[in-house]
Amino acid sequence: MEGSPGGRSKGHGRGLVRAAAAMLATGLVAAGTIVAATAATAAPADETGQHQGGAVAVLDGLKTYGFAELNTGEGKKPQELPAGLFEMKVDGGGTIQTYCIDFHTPTKDGAKYSETPWDQSSLGANEDAGKVRWILQHSYPQVNDFAALAEKAGTGPLDEKTAAAGTQVAIWRFSDKADVTAKDANAEKLADWLEENAQNLAEPKASVGLSPAAVSGKAGEKLGPVTVHTDAGQVSVVPPADAAASGVQVTDKAGKPVTEAADGADLYFSVPEDATDGSASFSVQASTSVPVGRVFAGLTKSQTMILAGSSESTVTAAASATWAEKGAVPALTAEKNCAKGGVDITAANNGDEPFTFTLAGAEHTIAAGETRTVTIPVAEDQAYDFTITGPGGFSKNFKGVLDCKTAGTPAPGDDTETQSGSEPVPAQTGTSSTGAEGDLAETGGSSATPVIAGVAIALVVLGGGAVFFLRRKKTQSSGE
């Protein structure tokens, strides 16, 4: 199947386990909720899920490839698989090329991907992550003079297909620790040269991002700062959609309206003193080449990718603000936490009264000026779907897959029929001893995607209408 290296899958046995888990999850009716008295206005759903800024793209298939062989064990016949470059179409315009860094996971046709930090992917815990970036910078398509590449690497003649195959094989040896060999002799020599010479490089900067992505405060103030992070020279600043009616502006520290910004610039929401309690958001946008080495993770379960080449592409990031005349004024954000195996919910209270909410039956209080974080456990490879609702028709949705590790080799006896286009399996929240991690330990600011506080936050899992089933493993020691 195109776009699925090796045509491998999670395997028949693993599929039965997942089917059983799905049926079990369908029957769950317990919910974890966050309840608070706060103001919020209607906001559109975030169609890209937990997007923290950068490019969003749709998989267009495996386009340039040769073949490789996977050593599946002593005495077993090697398994042949395609190895090479995928293409993706970027939302808003542009095309990117990627290699796979999640060997045993199949792709999903038309899957949507978003630019993702290394620490929220399988590269976060991989000590050789920087070597993958080195390979990308020293081979095809970044180096497209095949004669020069062949001479430097000491191979015979190379072309697009053999160069792509050799590059992918070298990447798999670091990203998945795979025992894999390119079928073409010159592609194999290229893979060996890249593997032997690779050096650890730092993670590239995001194409664009804003941090923190949610702020709060009182009307009449400048809410922020929200700092711009970008690899592009300049970004355009798109003001709140109802700026003319609400009077909310995006300004610099001095209060001057801003329409363009550079890396490191601090932006603020300037909220009129007579503004009614509510919220607003702005975005930044640029047309730029996405930096080589940026990870792209699927919003549904699909092979994790790493960027190898980019046309001029549209990249975006957004930030939001909530304000109120008095009382608690919270700002909530969420981001994947691969180190703890879950999704971090961070609550900041910039009001003048405590912010009290209930999570999984336990009450927590965040004093004015405090920021605290709790981790909601999600099993590896499982989908989650967080729906946030509030007064005035407010609704915001965050969805994705906790994909923090490369998939393991299929178990002996599993078949190799490729999964295709199926919906994600409902997320599991661990064993009976697993619960909300962190006990809302005090933290600093967050650069995560905003999830503005509403009257209730229901953590709902994809599949069968199941809801998150949260279990606590210790009593709260602070903030209660």
Topology:
Blueprint: H1 12-26, E1 33-35, E2 56-70, E3 79-90, E4 95-100, E5 112-116, H2 129-137, H3 146-153, H4 160-175, E6 180-182, H5 185-197, E7 208-211, E8 214-217, E9 222-230, E10 235-238, H6 243-246, E11 249-251, E12 260-261, E13 266-270, E14 278-288, E15 295-298, E16 305-310, E17 313-323, E18 330-337, E19 342-349, E20 355-359, E21 362-366, E22 371-377, E23 383-389, E24 395-401, E25 437-442, E26 449-450, E27 456-460
Parallel strand pairs: 8-17
Antiparallel strand pairs: 1-27, 2-3, 2-5, 2-6, 3-4, 4-16, 5-15, 7-9, 9-13, 10-12, 10-14, 11-13, 14-17, 15-16, 18-19, 18-26, 19-22, 20-21, 22-25, 23-24, 23-27
Helix pairs in contact: 2-4, 4-5
N- to C-terminal distance? 53 Å
Strand content: 25-35%
Count of helical stretches = 6
Approximate shape: elongated
What's the average pLDDT?
76
Strand order of the largest sheet: 2-3-4-16-15-5
The low-pLDDT segments are 1-49, 388-396, 410-480
Biggest pleated-sheet summary: 6 strands, antiparallel, barrel
Helix content: 10-25%
Radius of gyration: 24 Å
- Determine the structural class based on helices, strands and strand pairing: mainly beta
Number of strands: 27
